[in-house]
Amino acid sequence: MLKNKKLSREEFFEIREKIRTHWHTGSDERLDFDKAVETLRNVPDSKNFAKKLRYAKENGITMIQPRAGVALVDEHIILMKFLQNQGGADFLPSTIDSYTRQNRYSNAEDAIKESEKQKRSLLNGFPAVNHGVEGCTKVFESVKVPLQARHGTPDARLLSEIIHASGWTSNEGGGISYNIPYAKNISLEDTLRYWQYCDRLVGIYAEEGIEINREPFGPLTGTLVPPSISHTVAIIEAILAAEQGVKNITVGYGQCGNITQDVAALQTLDALTNYYLKLFGYEDVFVTTVLHQWMGGFPADEAKSMALISLGATVATLGGATKIITKSPHESQGVPTKEANAEGLRASKLITNLLATQRYPSDKVLKAEKEMIEKEVKTLLYATLNVGKGDFVQGVIKAFEQGILDIPFAPSEMNKGHILPARDKRGNIRILEFGNLPFDDEIKKFHKNALEERAKSENRDVSFQMTIDDVYAISRGKLVGNFSKKEPLNEN
Amino acid sequence: MLKNKKLSREEFFEIREKIRTHWHTGSDERLDFDKAVETLRNVPDSKNFAKKLRYAKENGITMIQPRAGVALVDEHIILMKFLQNQGGADFLPSTIDSYTRQNRYSNAEDAIKESEKQKRSLLNGFPAVNHGVEGCTKVFESVKVPLQARHGTPDARLLSEIIHASGWTSNEGGGISYNIPYAKNISLEDTLRYWQYCDRLVGIYAEEGIEINREPFGPLTGTLVPPSISHTVAIIEAILAAEQGVKNITVGYGQCGNITQDVAALQTLDALTNYYLKLFGYEDVFVTTVLHQWMGGFPADEAKSMALISLGATVATLGGATKIITKSPHESQGVPTKEANAEGLRASKLITNLLATQRYPSDKVLKAEKEMIEKEVKTLLYATLNVGKGDFVQGVIKAFEQGILDIPFAPSEMNKGHILPARDKRGNIRILEFGNLPFDDEIKKFHKNALEERAKSENRDVSFQMTIDDVYAISRGKLVGNFSKKEPLNEN
Amino acid sequence: MHTVVIGVIGADVHAVGNKIIEHVLKEEGFNVVNIGVLSSQEDFINAAIETDAQAVLVSSLYGHGEMDCKFLKENMIEAGLGHVKLYVGGNIVVGKQDFKSVEDRFKKMGFDRVYPPGTNIEIALNDLREDLGA
Amino acid sequence: MHTVVIGVIGADVHAVGNKIIEHVLKEEGFNVVNIGVLSSQEDFINAAIETDAQAVLVSSLYGHGEMDCKFLKENMIEAGLGHVKLYVGGNIVVGKQDFKSVEDRFKKMGFDRVYPPGTNIEIALNDLREDLGA
Ligand code: B12
Ligand code: B12
User: Which of B57, B84, B489 has the most A C-beta neighbours within 10 Å, making it the best mutation to test the interface with A?
Assistant: First the structure.
C-alpha cells in the first residue's frame, strides 16, 4: 500500500533503470547519475530556478514567466530567446506537448516529422522526451535564465530525469494536480507513486547539494476553483514533495477575479503552506508562491485580454506573489505567437515594476476572507488525513473517492465532480453545491448567504445556471455572470 | 476688478453679441438663444452628459471616455462612431485642435483645406469653431451617447456657444486649468473672465431647465502634480462655476501611480468638492469625479501602455470614480488611430466591468494619506481666499503671483514654477521644493521625511535629479525613477 | 428525440466546454451521448453505431485537432456512418489562424460544419435543428 | 562655450521636455538660450541672431510640427543663418507614423537632424558635439 514515505535510494535507483528504457532517449549516458550531478553542479546561480526564486522572495520582487513550447528544438530556442529578450521573462518554461504528457512518444515523433515537413509546429508544446538530453541541453545552453518543464503529465518520470539532467532546475506538477485536471482514468495511486519518484529525484539531487525547485500545479481545472480547495491540494503536494526531500517549493493559485479574495488567497497560501510543512515536521523547506493569470476562458478581444493580464499582474504584485505565470492576448484563440506571448510578459512586467513597493491594504473584509480560507483548508486537510488514518497518500486516494476532496469541472473519473462553484455579488468564488465536502454549518452558511445575496440582487434563484453563467462571464467581459440586466442609460 | 460674482443676464448677453463676431460661424442663427434652448431641450436623456453622469454615480458605475478629434467633419463622425461602437465609449469627446485653442481660426481654416487636399488630418483635433453649429450638429446627430468638447482653450467663449447650441452637453476647462498648463502669457484675470462667461452660459441654460455638465481640467500639466494642488484648483473652479449657476460638475484628477495615493485622491476629491461647495453656499450642485489615466510620458511599447491603461482603469474603479478619460497604446507616439484608441477603451471597459462591485479597502495608510490631502487642500484654499480678501477670483490671481498656488512644469509665466515634486519610496508624489506654498512645518516635514527615506534607500541625496528621473520613470517602465541599481540575479 | 454523440478527441482533457455542451443540448431536448474527454476516433464511431446517432459533435481544444481528426470521415463512412452529420468545434488548430482557411481545411476533411474558438453553443443548436430537420 | 537656441514651435505648450533639455544641456556646459513654448519661427530666428547661436533645437510635440516648420530653413537662410545647425525632435507629426518617412520629409525641409518620439536627450548631445566640433 502506497504511503507518504520517502523512497529509499535503492528503490529509487531500481525504478530509475526501468524508467530509462521507456523511450530510446533514456539511454543517453548524460542520464547516468554522476554525469547528471555534474551537469547540475555547473549550472550558474543566475540559471538556477530555486536560487533565483529565493532571491526574488527575499527582495520582495514579483517575477514573471510565460508558457511556451513548440515541436522543434531550433524553433523552441528561438522562442525561448525571444521571450527572454523581447519579453523580459525572469524565468523560462518549456511547455510540453500533449502527446508527451500522455507518454505517447511515438505520436510525438510523427508530429515532429510532420512539423519539420510543414515547417510549422503541429504540436502544442515541446516534446522534451523525444528530443532527449541532447535537445534539452541545447535549449538550456541557449538561454540566460532558469528553465522549468511545465506540463500536465501523470507519469513524468522519464521527462523529469531528462530535463534535470539537462540543467533545467524546476519541474511543475504533482500526483493530484497532474492527474485530476489532466487525465480521465488513471488512478491516484499511480500518479502519486509516479510523482513520489519525481520528487525523490529532486530530493536525491538535494542530498548532493543541488537545489532544484518543484511547483505543484495550483490552478487545477482553472475553472472557478474555490481557493481553499486548490490550497489544500497545493499544501498536500508540498508535504508529499517535502517527504521525498524537496527543499524549494512553489505553491500556486489561479487568479479568481475579486482582488480581495485573490490577495487573501495568495497570503494564506504562503502562510498555510509554511505552517503545515512545519507542523508535519518539514522544517527547512523554502516556500514561494505563484499566481497564474486568469486560467478560465479568455475574452476573444486582444485589448480586453491585455487588461485581464494586467489585472492578474496587479493582484499578484499587491498580494506579494513571488512569481506570475503570464497569459497572452491570443489566449482564447490558440497557442500564442512569440510576439503575442511577449506582449503578455511586457504588460505584466510594467505592472510588477510600478507596483513593486506597493501592497494591498488589510481591512476587515480581507481578514475575514483569509480566516474563512484558513478554516476551510484546515477542515479539508484534517479530513483527508483522517480518512488516510494519518497518511496523506492514502488520505488523498480515499478523500477523492469519497468526495472529501472534489474539484469542479475535472475530467478525471477519480473525482466525484459533485461540487458546484458560483460567484457571489462581488465576484468571490463561493460554493453552491458542496457534494461531500466535510464543511461545518458555519462554513456552509457563509457560502449560501453570499450566493443568496447575489441571487436576490439579480432577481433569480441560486442554481446551476449561475455556475454556467460564471464559467462564461469573464470571456464575455464580466466577472459575475448575469446577462439579463438592462441598464437604461448605459447601453454602451 | 474681476470678482467671483455671477454675471447678470444683461452683461452676459451683451458680451455674447461681441463673441459671435469673432469668426463668421458665430453668425449662424441656430446660435440665437431661443433656438439654442430648443435644440438643447430636444436632446434625449441618453445623450445628455449631465444626466448620464448622474445615473452612473447613483448606480456606482465607472464610465469611460476617450480623447479624439480630427480635422474634417465626416472623418470625425467616422471616428466618433467607431469609438462608440467598437470601443464601447459611454461618453464621446471632441478634442479640439491646437489652433482653435489659441483662437487662430484662420490657421485652422488653412489646415482644414490642407487636410482635405492631403486626405489625412493635419490637425491634432476637431476645429469646432470653423465647422460651426452646422458641423457640430452633424456630429451630434451621428452618435448615440453624450458629447463633450475637450480642449485647453484660454478663451473658449465662441467655442462653448457653438458646441452647446449643437446639443453637446458638456464642456471641459476652467480659468486656471485651461490657462496655466496651456498658455504662456495670458493673464489669469483674462482667462477667469472668459471662463466666467462659459460657466454663465451653462448657468443660463440651467435657468431654462437644461442640465449641462462642466468639467474643470484636473490633471493640469499631467506631470507629477501633487494631488492637493490639483484638488485645490479643481475645487476653486467648481466654486467659480457654481457661482455662475452651473449645477453639474465633474472634478478631475490624473493618476499618480501609487494606488493608495490615487484612491485617497479620488475619495477626497469627491468629498472635499462637495464639502466646500456647500460650505461656500452652493447647495444643489451634483458632483462627479473623473480619473485621467496616466497623463505624463508613456512607455513607447504598446503592451506596456496597455498595462498602464489597465492600471489606470483599476484605480479609477476601486477608487469609485464616475468616469475615466482613457489613453491609447499609441500615446507616446502621436494622436492614436481610431483602432488604437478603441483598444484603450475596451481594455478600460473590461476592468470597470470586472471590478464593478469592488472597492479599495481602507486602512491606516489610506486614511493618513487622505488626511494629509485634506489638510493641504484646506491650507491652500484658505490661503487663496485670504490673499483674495475673501474673493476666490482675486485670490487665484494673487495666489499664483505669490506662489501660494504653484504648478510644476507649467509653461505659463503667471505661474512661479518654484515647486518641485518627486516620488517617495512607494511612488507617492511628494514635494521636494515648496517654493512659496503656505504649508506648515508638519506638512513640510511629512514630505521631507518621505523623500529622505527614499534617498536613503537609493543611496543618494534628495535633489532635482530625482524629479528628472521621476519625469522619465513611467515611460521607462518604473514608477520611482532610480536607474542606477543593479540587481544581481535579476537582469531581465 | 434526436441522438447526438459529443466528446473531446485525442489526448485532449479540456472538460469544461464538453460538460456545458452536454447540459445545454439536454435542456434543449436532445438525447446526448457524452463520451467525454480523451476519446479516440473509435470511441466516437462505436458510440454513434451503438446509439444510432444522427450527429457527431467533435470537440478539440488543445491544438492537435487537425491530426486527431485525420480520416475520421473516411472511417465513419467505412463503419456505415456516412449519413451521420459531423461537426467540429473548439480551438481546433494550433495558434491563432485565419478561420476561413481552417474551415476550408476541415470541410475538405469531410466535416459538415466547423466552428471557430469560443462559439456560443446556441449557434450550433440552430444548425443542428436545421440539419436534422427538427 | 557653444550657444544653442531651444524652444517649442507653434501653438504648442508642451513645456516638460523643454525644461529638461535646458537643464541637461546646461549641465553639459552649453550656453542655452531657451525661448520656451509657443514660439514662432521669428522667435527662433531672432534668438539665434541675437546670441550668435551655432545650433537651433526645435521641439514640436503636439502634432502640428510639419506645418509650423514649413520654410523655417529658408527663412533662416534669408536671415543669414544658413550655417546654423537645425535639429527637430519631439512628436513632430500627427499620429504614429513610420519614422523613416518622417525623417525624410524633415530632411528635405532642410533639417540637419530629426529625432523620433521620446529620444533620450543624451543621444542628441553626442550629435551636437560631433556637428559643432566640441
Ligand atoms: C481552462 C483551460 C485549461 C484547463 C482545462 C481543465 C479541464 N480539464 O477542463 C487546463 C489548465 C487543465 C488546461 C490544460 C491545457 N491547455 Co488549456 N485552456 C483552458 C482555457 C483557458 C479555457 C477553456 C475552457 O474551459 N473554456 C470555457 C468553455 C466553456 O469554452 P470552450 O472550451 O471553448 O467550449 C465552448 C465552445 O468552444 C464551444 N465548443 C467546443 N467544442 C465544440 C464543438 C462543437 C461541434 C461546437 C458546435 C461547439 C464547441 O462550445 C463550448 C461551450 O460553450 C483555454 C483558452 C480559452 N478559451 O480561453 C485554454 C486552451 C484551450 N488550452 C490550451 C492548451 C495548449 C493546453 C495545454 C496543452 C497546455 C497548456 N498550455 O498548459 C493543456 C492541455 C492538456 C491536454 N492534454 O489537453 C490552448 C489550446 C491551443 C490551441 N488550440 O492552439 C488554449 C486555447 C490556450 C492557449 N491559447 O494556448 N487548459
Ligand atoms: C504631458 C502631456 C501634455 C500636457 C502638457 C503640459 C505642459 N504644458 O507641458 C497637457 C495635458 C497640457 C497636454 C496637452 C496637449 N497635448 Co499632450 N502630451 C503630454 C504627454 C503625455 C507627455 C509629454 C511629456 O511631457 N513628456 C515628457 C518629456 C520629458 O518628454 P518629451 O516631451 O517627449 O521631450 C523629450 C524628448 O522627446 C526629446 N525632445 C523633445 N524635443 C526635442 C527636440 C530635439 C531637437 C531633440 C534632440 C530632442 C527633443 O527630449 C525631451 C526630454 O527628454 C505626451 C505623450 C507622451 N509622450 O507620452 C502627449 C502628447 C505630446 N500631447 C499631444 C496632444 C495632441 C496634446 C493636445 C493637443 C491635446 C490633447 N490630446 O489633449 C494638447 C496640446 C495643447 C497645445 N496647445 O500644445 C499628442 C501629440 C500628438 C501628435 N504629435 O500626434 C501627444 C503625443 C499625445 C498623443 N499621443 O496624442 N499634453
Answer: B489
